Amino acid sequence: MYYRFGKVFHFLSILFFLVVFLYIYSAIPETVAYEIDDNGYLVKGVSRSTFFYFGIILFAVLNIVLITPAKMIEKQSTANLKRLFPTGDIFRDYMLTWIYSFVGIINVSLCILTLFVHSINNQNEISSGSYSLFFYMVPIFFVTWVVALFWILSQKFKTLQRGV
Predict the structure, then answer these.
(1) What's the structural domain count of the chain?
(2) What is the CA radius of gyration of the chain?
């Protein structure tokens, strides 16, 4: 039941990424800088179309690869998954919630990365330092989600050892 909240968060993060990415794509110059020197001059950059295609392909590949285990658990595609995460098991719900929300966190992190690239390329509109809070939140979210994964797995292994 809880995994539906994870699915909604994942879906909203996809919409959020697409809106942010398309907005930023329309606002960046023809040469997109991803590294600048102390004076604000371009050190390393790529073309606008390369940035767009790389960003969309990275987003799609990450979402497809990371959602595949959740879909396999939901559809119970193998006998091992049927045995390990049977329908109605609370840990099945926890794992699905974790996977969908983790991919949502990755999507939000990609949005923050895209906003940072935007701030590098538009120094006169927004400074890259204004995103420092978000940059600290990303690793905190990842550590929290990894700790939650280990907690879910340890609880599941305890129930398997007890034979429940």
Answers:
(1) 1
(2) 20
**Number of continuous H segments (helices) and E segments (strands) in the chain:** 5, 2
Start-to-end CA distance of the chain, whole Å, equals 21
Strand partners, 45: 33
Helix or strand holding residue 34 (H, E): strand 31-36
Three-state secondary structure along 28-51?
CCCEEEEEECCCCCEEEEEEHHHH
The token pair that represents 15 in the structure block:
């919409």
- pTM assigned to the model: 0.84
The parent domain of residue 97 ranges over: 3-162
Neighbour tally for 102: CB within 10 Å: 22
- The per-residue pLDDT for range 106-152, each reduced to its tens digit, is 999 999 888 888 888 876 666 656 667 777 888 898 999 999 999 98
